[in-house]
Task: inverse folding
């Protein structure tokens, strides 16, 4: 019998998948009830939603603790490492498709719906019937109800946030180089800088939202422009928040002495995700703010 084969670790039965299923059930049920009740604080839906989130966090901590323990004990083979890489690659691909759907909605509104409402092509009757006073322009700052808003310019906070995210990708790259060369001091410094830049980005985005609501009249009710603006920037902000949390967890593991120059997939996965978030923001900055 040929003994030259590669072992593949098969973990024991785990309770975490069913725990995660219960968490998602309570989150979906609680969110649905909260929207239906919409009676403010104290609704049963809110409590179920909070319960689901708490169970989900408990599941994540427990499951990742087990994975870290198995990895540190040398149970994983090269094939298992390839499985992790493939899984992370498919996850990022799904996130690409997620944002492509929203960019597609933005494209459809700007390039198809707005010209149609303006009477382009053979749609003059559409313009006269649906919105006779409509002017085909983007950003669309007038709603069918007659409310007006202002577009968010690309200068100022959006440009600053773009520079911040670009710098964060550079600091994360330096951290990766330090990891590969086992320079733990530089690794910790550059990781901390990357996390700090992520937090600054989120803080400035909150300031931008406050400015949009108070000064520009740009809200979720501000027609298709307001909808697409907050949809894209809001979901991106959620991904930056998640990425910052992931990087913070990786930094904690670094401080605990985890990873080495040739074994640090968790760090690589976090870096892939952060670079993806940066690329999405560059596309978002161009198509939402500039064009």
Result:
């Amino acid at each position: 019998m040929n003994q030259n084969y590669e072992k593949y670790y098969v973990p024991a039965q785990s309770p975490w998948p069913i725990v995660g299923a219960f968490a998602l059930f309570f989150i979906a049920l609680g969110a649905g009830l909260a929207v239906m009740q919409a009676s403010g604080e104290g609704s049963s839906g809110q409590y179920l939603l909070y319960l689901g989130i708490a169970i989900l966090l408990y599941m994540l901590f427990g499951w990742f603790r087990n994975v870290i323990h198995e990895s540190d004990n040398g149970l994983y083979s090269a094939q298992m490492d390839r499985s992790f890489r493939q899984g992370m690659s498919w996850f990022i691909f799904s996130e690409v498709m997620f944002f492509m759907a929203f960019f597609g909605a933005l494209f459809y509104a700007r390039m198809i719906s707005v010209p149609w409402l303006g009477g382009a092509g053979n749609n003059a009757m559409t313009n006269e019937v649906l919105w006779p006073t409509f002017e085909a322009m983007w950003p669309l700052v007038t709603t069918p109800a007659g409310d007006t808003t202002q577009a968010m310019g690309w200068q100022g906070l959006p440009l600053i946030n773009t520079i911040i995210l670009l710098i964060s990708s550079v600091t994360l790259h330096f951290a990766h180089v330090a990891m590969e060369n086992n320079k733990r001091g530089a690794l910790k410094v550059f990781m901390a800088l990357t996390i700090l830049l992520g937090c600054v980005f989120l803080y400035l985005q909150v300031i931008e939202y406050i400015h949009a609501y108070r000064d520009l009249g740009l809200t979720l009710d501000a027609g298709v422009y307001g909808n697409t603006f907050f949809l894209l920037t809001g979901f991106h902000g959620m991904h930056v928040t998640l990425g910052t949390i992931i990087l913070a967890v990786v930094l904690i593991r670094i401080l605990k002495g985890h990873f080495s120059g040739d074994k640090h997939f968790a760090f690589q996965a976090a870096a892939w995700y952060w670079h993806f978030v940066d690329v999405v923001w560059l596309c978002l900055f161009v198509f939402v703010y500039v064009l």
In short: Residues 62 and 185 are 29 Å apart (CA to CA).
